[in-house]
Structures
1.
Amino acid sequence: MSDKAYGGTTPQTDKDRILVVYNICGIKRDNTYQYPIFLHSIMNQKFDGEVVVAVSACCPREQTIPYLKDEFPNYHYNVIKEPYPVNVTFNKTVLDCVERFGEFDGYFYHACDVTINADNVYQELFDCLKSNDSLGL
């Protein structure tokens, strides 16, 4: 995996582009040091195109974002300081990323406590989306 593929710095017009929104929340507990376990499973995904990863952080703890930026410097970070429901923070992060990086061909929500054990999940989800017009991701 190249940094460019997961950094989202340069839109590619000839390849499919997906946005993966990794949702975290620091309201009830501090999971700062558990997040990298799950974020690494995102990094290990194989996708024939560009993957932009955005960390959507609702009320993160003081050390969370600096720690994650040190571990994952090429990810986009969207900090939401007010306590909103996950659907609101997800939508806000998607809007911010579209403004910054342009439209994507797919938008994926990734909960903070989910590890992906296979390396082709995003590709299979995206292929399913492309092959069936009645689906939306």
Note: The longest strand covers residues 16-25.
2.
Amino acid sequence: MGVGFAETLNAGLKFRTGEKTQMGISVGTWPSPGGYIFDWNSLISLSGDFYYHFGGHAFEQTLPYWYIRSGIDYMRLRFDDDTDNNIEMHIRFGRDFYVSEISGIGLDAGVAVFVLNESGLTQVLPAIGINLFFLF
């Protein structure tokens, strides 16, 4: 579970794909601010990411705690009379902070570039995220 731009408030899954790699997917939303310029009826985001981990290990069985994350996010904003679709690609640098052998907090930051931008947002924006994770 996490929050970020452009994943919004989201829930997702990560799958270990190798000794130092993961793939992740998430779905998210954001409540309408009501009365502001961006007063949408619904906002949905879908994300897919690839993670490459490096550096030291917090625990023997965990992935290294530093990572590079690249991915793509789709956001759909629906208004009363219109729907805006946005797709952005990002690259981020981050770190997992383990609270225990099975849980922790991940923080990352980088840059996002819109490849489809129907909302008129700035073409290049910061990409940031924080998430709570549990290992199964």
Note: The longest strand covers residues 83-100.
3.
Amino acid sequence: MTNAASLADYDDLVHRIYDAALRPERLQDVLERLCELLRAPFGNLFSWTRQPQQGGLFFTTFPDGVVEHYQRIQHDDLHMRSAARKQLLFEGSVVTSDDLVEEGELFESAVYRQIWRPLGIRRMCGGSVFGATDSH
């Protein structure tokens, strides 16, 4: 594959997404392919309102142990708190780190210091497919 993704690459991704709509267990493959096309080192795909044990979805490309560590310090997730406070969890929303948190504030957070910095993460981009409800 060249540096830029081709139309065929995106076409393949769209087909994988449609396939995963019928077979949710294939969402991990979709996430991995999406990260590859975007040249993103890590990614998450999850339900806002339900944990997996409640019927929600959660897929990640983070190394083992990162999600468990995050769950212990998620109260310090400035991005999620800011997105909720600014009411940005609506269907179709797309946000970046810069939309949510000032850089200096981010650098002081436990999530940044304990997870992002060791993994070389400085920014994120996120979106909401179904918003903060699971009515779909």
Note: The longest strand covers residues 44-46.
